[in-house]
Amino acid sequence: MSWIERAEDAAVALVVAVVTSSMAAGVWVVRRVFTNEQQIAMLKREIEARDDRRTGDRKALDEVKTDVRELRSEIRQLFREGGR
User: How far apart are CA 19 and CA 25, in angstroms?
Assistant: First the structure.
């Protein structure tokens, strides 16, 4: 085998390696972008679910506060009537 044939074989191997690594890099980028999009969508759904729960919790807390106020007023009224 002459040095020219070896150089040609090396050039072909180098081209194959470059093309293969370029394709692998492209696949990696596509998978990475797709995975990030899925993660972003999942995080958005989680944030929306948390907001919905938070809204429900605030409504429930407001109801509890209203009930406590009503109980306080009823207790005060009972003490006023009981003292007479």
Answer: 10
Q: What is the Cα–Cα distance from 60 to 68, expressed in whole angstroms?
A: 12
Token pair in block for residue 24: 């692998």
- Pull the structure tokens for residue 54: 């938070």
Q: Is the dihedral of CA 20, 22, 24, 26 positive or negative?
A: negative
Query: Which amino acid, one-letter code, is at 38?
Result: Q
The whole-angstrom distance between residue 69's C-alpha and the CA centroid of its chain comes to 39
**pLDDT at residue 83, as a whole number:** 57
Global confidence as pTM: 0.52
Residue 14 pLDDT grade (very low, low, confident, very high; cuts 50, 70, 90): very high
